[in-house]
Amino acid sequence: MGTSIYAAESERLWLQCLSEEHLEGYHAIQSNPLAMMWSQNLPEASLEETLQHLRERQPTPEQPWNQRWAILLKGSEGKDGEEGGKEGKPKMIGIIGIVREQEIGYKLHPDYWGKGYMSEALKTMLGMFWASEGEMFLPDFVRWDSVNCVPANKKYNELKAYADPENKASVNVLTKAGFRKSILLKNRHSRAYLGKGVMSDLQGFYLFRPGTENMY
Ligand SMILES: CC(C)(COP(=O)(O)OP(=O)(O)OC[C@H]1O[C@@H](n2cnc3c(N)ncnc32)[C@H](O)[C@@H]1OP(=O)(O)O)[C@@H](O)C(=O)NCCC(=O)NCCS
């Protein structure tokens, strides 16, 4: 089998390990007020700020789970200055990854909301994540031959997620992917978009590795 620069693919998307080559696409998302409206952080003001965060969001020996994948749109390869990705590369439309140990997070550029892209990306990422156990749960869309950056996820039989209950789009994305509600944390989350002193609720979610649910 040959190798691929992508970690996984679905019908419309590629997932690629986040690296500095994604800086501009990542900044377009992290600097967008709508994309950041549920975040505890303000939109990022400069490429330098995004670069610093990008470098912090990489796996290390201490935090091998600290991984992000750029969500790239297939068929969007364009020339510089045109709509689409630069220099023939597919356009980065979102980000998905492990934001804290065993906890997933994601964000899509608002230009691409409501088209099912995050549902597709999450399904793809989960297939890749669970597949790192071995080939037992390897779905068709995961390119196991690829240069991908899945660490040893063997020890994880459960993933978690948190969403503001008012963030209906995110709640729907998680529910559609099979996540179930766990605890509702009241007044737990400070959203920069709402200003200081306003606390929002957080709904917890969990998802078991396929085939392990009956172990609990
Ligand atoms: C949350 C987010 C990733 C959703 O991405 P998306 O690609 O637009 O989501 P999808 O198109 O896959 O939609 C998933 C489901 O939610 C529904 N949905 C989408 N937007 C919705 C909205 N604003 N209100 C209610 N439902 C919505 C869709 O209809 C779909 O359900 P369906 O298939 O039954 O129709 C995107 O809105 C986003 O990046 N928001 C800002 C960052 C963020 O909130 N991150 C998550 C923090 S927990």
From TrEMBL:
Superkingdom to which the source organism belongs: Eukaryota
Molecular-function GO terms, alphabetical: acyltransferase activity, transferring groups other than amino-acyl groups
Membrane spanning residue stretches: none
InterPro entries xrefs: Acyl_CoA_acyltransferase, GNAT_dom, N-acetyltransferase
Domain N-acetyltransferase: 12-180
PANTHER family: GNAT FAMILY, PUTATIVE (AFU_ORTHOLOGUE AFUA_3G00765)-RELATED-RELATED, N-ACETYLTRANSFERASE DOMAIN-CONTAINING PROTEIN
Protein name listed in UniProt: N-acetyltransferase domain-containing protein
Species: Phialocephala subalpina
Lineage of source species: Eukaryota, Fungi, Dikarya, Ascomycota, Pezizomycotina
